[in-house]
Design a protein that fits this description.
globular; five-stranded mixed β-sheet; alpha/beta; Purple Acid Phosphatase, chain A, domain 2
Length: 304
Amino acid sequence: MKRRTFLKRSIQGSALLCASQFPLAAFAQGQKELCILHTNDVHSRLDPFPMDGGKYQGLGGIKARERLIRNKRQEKSNVLLFDAGDMFQGTPYFNLFKGEAEIKMMNLLGYNAGTIGNHDFDNGIEQLANVLTIADFPLINCNYDFTHTPLEHKVLPYKIFKQDGLKIGVLGVGIELDGLVLKSLYGHTKYNDPISSANKMAALLKEKKKCDYIICLSHLGYKYESNKVSDLILARESENIHLIIGGHTHTFLKKPTELLNKKNKVVLINQVGWAGINLGEININFDHTSNIKHSSFALVINSK
């Protein structure tokens, strides 16, 4: 091939690569991987369960979780850590420190975001707002209207995380508080339908914000015998959500549940019990054609 022809074709190829916004790393490696770590319903369990012969003796605790998270961050380059609500209530740490101990520990572990559970209101909405001032991570919820409450402008409807050229959109939804939490604790918070709220936010993240992957942090509960809104119902009625990280029902799933949404696309649902006994892990692989493949498992936290 003549030198002039070679240079011309090389320039055309470079221009085509740039015009398509195709990342060079993906061209060389073929795919990118994102690792999602998650907890739910930790309920102030900062220490492992005591060695008293109980079912969960020796399991859980901040020390063991920190080790697992640190190891994953050393193994993988793109790691995000989320919580699906009910950080508070369950041990004397909450009674003594009113949520500060839990938030400080989550800061040390490097949580990227969480959502709000019903027990996170147990010291009242004003105290929840106060303790959030020391958080290094946001709480995300799009179906609670906090207008004219202490949490106004302190909770995000969504957040976008940029990882290795990928845009990861995260939204959050919470359970109906009326009848579950004393009104004096959640004040003038208004509850909106989580399905329509989640679909509206997910559409914004996909269509306007151009997110590659959309995660819903949910404190709705995995499933119910009644027609109460659950993660299973949300998944079937959703349109753009890829992954639901759930809480509230303390459900131990051996592996994530897969369901089809309204567009006949797979939605993954995971929940890892309670008390920090398990740390959930979801690995997502993206190839250069934007196809998404999941592999996942839960890690049992052991303090030994």
